[in-house]
Amino acid sequence: MMRMMPLMAPFSARMRRMLKDIQRLKSMVEMIDHTQEQEIACDEAFHLLDEFTDAVLRGEDTAELMPLVKHHLAMCMDCREEYEVLLKSLKAAQD
Q1: 54: how many CB neighbours lie within 10 A of its CB?
Q2: 56/36 Cα distance (integer angstroms)
Q3: Do 29 and 75 fall within a single domain?
Q4: Is 82 in contact with 49 (CB distance < 8 Å)?
């Protein structure tokens, strides 16, 4: 009797990689779909991150005050992570 198990393991690993690739492609398409005429790069967003975070902590409407930064943070995981760490640190310092 032939064992099928060894053949299934590589197939499932390949399938997992394919599913991850499909998810990345969907994410990229979504980002392209949400692209605006005017956007800022990571450098600009990072430069404005302190001001943006302070506005959030004051309860101000960042969508109105800094819409490009808000949009960038919604689209860029790296910058969003930086923002979340900064926000968490500032909140902890306030307590």
Answers
A1: 13
A2: 23
A3: no
A4: yes
Where in the sequence is the domain holding 60, given as residue range(s)?
37-95
How far are the Cα atoms of 29, 31, 34, 94 from residue 82, in angstroms, in the given order? Answer: 23, 19, 21, 19
Q: Is 17 in contact with 54 (CB distance < 8 Å)?
A: no
Overall number of domains in the chain: 2
64 and 94 both lie in a single domain: yes
pLDDT digits (tens, 9 = 90+) for 44-73: 999 999 999 999 999 999 999 999 999 999
**Count of Cβ atoms closer than 10 Å to residue 79 Cβ:** 21
Distant-in-sequence, close-in-space partners of 79: CB < 8 Å, separation ≥ 6: 42, 45, 46, 49, 72, 73
Reported as a single tens digit per residue, the pLDDT across 10-29 is 668 888 888 888 888 887 78
44 lies in the same domain as 20: no
